[in-house]
Design brief:
The complex is a heterodimer of chains A (80) and B (373).
Chain A lengths: L1 H12 L4 H4 L14 H15 L16 H12 L2
Helix pairs in contact in A: 1-3
Chain B lengths: L1 E8 L8 H12 L4 E5 L6 H16 L1 H7 L12 H13 L2 E6 L3 H12 L5 E6 L6 H9 L8 E4 L1 E2 L4 E2 L20 E3 L13 H6 L4 E5 L13 E5 L19 E4 L17 H5 L4 E4 L3 H10 L3 E3 L5 H13 L2 E3 H6 L4 H13 L7 H15 L1
Parallel strand pairs in B: 1-2, 1-3, 3-4, 4-5, 8-9, 8-12, 9-10, 12-13, 13-14
Antiparallel strand pairs in B: 6-7, 10-11
Helix pairs in contact in B: 2-3
Classes of the chains: A mainly alpha (80), B alpha/beta (373).
Organism (chain A): Paenibacillus tritici
Protein name (chain A): Acyl carrier protein
Pfam family, one (chain A): PP-binding
Chain lengths: 80, 373
């Protein structure tokens, strides 16, 4: 999932180079530099890709602190 | 001591702005000084531009707009500390003590002001939706006890299916169904979001003539018989004051596809879209807090489109349960029956005067408190 999440970030940012520079530890707002609109489009793509629905009550800004944390959150949604 | 009531609005949507202006007018009529502040005036230009960019994206895609509500945010990072300090200096100098807060964003600012004011500060947190809208939900996530020391006031009690307060708009008397023009107003709230644009053809095929809110000249196509477009000045922003330093209703005009002319200032609320709404047989829109206030004040029923988030879903349910609105799908199922609209309009007229005006109630409390001092 981590690799797919990075692919979606690179797609949203239109920066293929991010495939090489981002890792599981990368922060989505600092390292990947997703702005607020890009985060929205990122979430939409993730929901579509993994067939999950992000929920305000469970989603937290902390989940954007790393690709790994975000992936774990999405994996948690997928098993519900 | 200063009895000025400071009304803290937000430009996120007109629903968090226009009610503040209506209250300011009412306070003035009641002989009480009132001042408006708009949250975005405390944001640096870069953040204001981002707000504009977001609005355009939300207009273009309802899915993007809805998804924005799933992502928590901390609005404090958008504040300009110097602008906040300037405001605090002014408030302290003028000994401002009485506040009405329409957006959860402002509570961060009020918390700080209460610490430094050096005098008691009284603030109502006024919920203009039937459930917490995003600014309040974000605040609650950051500070679950945010309401401590404030007076929470809900306009609606959805569990009891009740309206607790209304907000008056002039002219006071709604038109009876028979005196209306039979037209339908179709809009997407202050930001032009939702599914309203998909409905034009079906409504016109059912024989209705439409008064449509446009949000750019580009979205006005070829002239269609019986169809009119109206627009708020697209250059106008809620955080702009006029030459007298006052916040205003949006400049407004009927527009055509050949281009927007001038947008004269709206000195009164009825000079804008509200003046069109109060003559129409129904409004087709998402169930925003502003749409509910307009519906109740003008006696115009709502045909309810998809809600912009869970709070608007509760707005929608409430309006249906009270008999003041009908879900679009249900109305379409009736064959777009005009009699359905007339019944809803009659219900609204029958309810006239049932719900206390929030501003008048606040003014009474203020006078009573003054009497005790």
């Amino acid at each position: 999932m981590q690799q797919k999440v990075i692919e979606i970030i690179a797609e949203i940012k239109e920066e293929p180079g991010l495939l090489q520079t981002l890792s599981g530890a990368s922060d989505l707002t600092l390292d990947a530099a997703l702005d607020s609109l890009q985060i929205i489009n990122f979430i939409l793509r993730v929901e579509d890709e993994f067939n999950v629905e992000v929920d305000f009550d469970t989603f937290d800004l902390e989940h954007l602190k790393s690709v790994d944390r975000f992936s774990a959150y999405v994996a948690g949604l997928a098993v519900q | 001591m200063n009895n000025t009531v400071t009304i803290l609005c937000s430009g996120f949507g007109l629903g968090f702005y226009v009610p503040g202006l209506l209250m300011e007018r009412k306070f003035t009529a009641l002989g009480i000084q009132a001042e408006i502040e708009v949250f975005e005036s405390l944001m640096p230009d870069s953040k204001k531009k981002r707000t504009d960019d977001n609005r355009k994206a939300y207009q273009q895609s309802f899915a993007v707009a809805l998804t924005s509500q799933k992502i928590p945010s901390d609005i404090r990072s958008s504040l300009d500390p110097a602008a906040v300090e300037r405001l605090f200096r002014q408030w302290k100098q003028e000994q401002r003590q009485h506040f009405i807060v329409l957006s959860g964003h402002w509570v961060h600012v009020m918390d700080r002001y209460r610490e430094i004011a050096g005098m008691p500060v009284y603030a109502d947190l006024l919920y203009i939706d039937a459930d917490l809208s995003p600014s309040w939900k974000n605040l609650r996530k950051l500070n679950p006890g945010y309401a401590e020391g404030y007076r929470e006031v809900s306009m609606y009690d959805p569990a009891a299916r009740e309206i607790l307060y209304s907000i008056d708009a002039e002219p006071a008397e709604p038109l009876p169904a028979a005196a209306r023009n039979g037209r339908l107003v179709v809009h997407g709230g202050g930001w032009g979001i939702g599914t309203f644009r998909e409905k034009f053809d079906a409504l016109e095929s059912a024989g209705y003539e439409l008064d449509i809110a446009a949000y750019s000249v580009q979205e006005i196509g070829q002239a269609v018989r019986g169809r009119r477009y109206y627009m708020n000045d697209p250059q106008w922003r809620t955080w702009q004051r006029d030459s007298n330093g006052k916040y205003t209703f949006p400049p407004f005009a009927e527009v055509t596809g050949t281009g927007a002319g001038s947008f004269p200032p709206s000195r009164n609320y009825q000079d804008g879209m509200y003046g069109v709404i109060r003559q129409a047989s129904a409004v087709i829109s998402k169930p925003g807090g502003g749409a509910l206030i307009d519906s109740l004040a003008s006696g115009t029923p709502l045909v309810l489109l998809d809600p912009f988030g869970p709070h608007e879903k509760i707005n929608s349910d409430l309006w249906v349960e009270l008999g003041y609105g009908i879900r679009y799908g249900d109305w379409a199922g009736s064959g777009y029956d005009y009699d359905e609209l007339r019944k809803l309009s009659d219900n609204l007229r029958s309810a006239r005067g049932q719900y206390p005006d929030y501003t008048s109630s606040y003014a009474e409390l203020l006078s009573a408190a003054e009497g005790r001092r």
